[in-house]
Write a structure and sequence with these properties.
Helix content is 29%, strand content 24%. By secondary structure, it is of the alpha+beta class. The protein has a domain of 101 residues: Gcn5-related N-acetyltransferase (GNAT) (Aminopeptidase, 3-Layer(aba) Sandwich), CATH 3.40.630.30. It has a six-stranded mixed β-sheet with strand order 1-6-5-4-3-2. The model has no long low-confidence stretch (mean pLDDT 95).
């Protein structure tokens, strides 16, 4: 039976005045510019990454994309895409309010530093835009993500 319970979240934030680590990209993966041509692949990654119940995304990629581009806090410059061999393997989306909306890494790339590299890149970009803090929320039961955020200086 599928649980209909809403997961519990914890809100975290990080002071952007403190040093941000330089992104350390794992071998074979790196940052690429956001390209509308990748939207369908990004949506597929979001679906894969959130299949564990630690997040969610609108099922139809076009509905997701139309809603995203219509959102007043969306800016393509705050979309960070990681690729390996031409495939999207990581994605970080930040709102203009300095909120990390999504941070996902393909399961086969987890634990290799890709999420940390994406988040460090996003934090640097937000600081360069004048933000003093960055915020996010994480499912309380998502121990792996919570460890990553704590390691990068996020606190409740």
């Amino acid at each position: 039976m599928v649980s209909l319970a809403t997961p519990d979240f914890i809100a975290l934030q990080r002071d952007l005045a403190t040093p941000i680590p330089a992104p350390a990209w794992p071998d074979g993966a790196g940052l690429t510019a956001f390209d509308v041509a990748d939207v369908k692949a990004i949506h597929a990654l979001l679906q894969r990454a959130y299949a564990n119940g630690f997040g969610g995304v609108t099922p139809d990629w076009l509905d997701w994309w139309e809603a995203l581009r219509a959102d007043s806090e969306f800016e393509p410059a705050l979309c960070f895409v990681a690729k390996a061999e031409g495939e999207v393997v990581g994605f970080c989306l930040c709102w203009t309010s300095s909120f990390v909306k999504d941070l996902v890494v393909a399961p086969e790339w987890q634990g290799q530093g890709l999420g940390a590299a994406l988040l460090a890149t996003a934090m640097t970009a937000l600081r360069e835009r004048g933000a003093s803090i960055v915020q996010l929320k994480v499912v309380t039961a998502n121990a792996g993500a919570r460890r990553l955020y704590e390691r990068l200086g996020f606190v409740a």
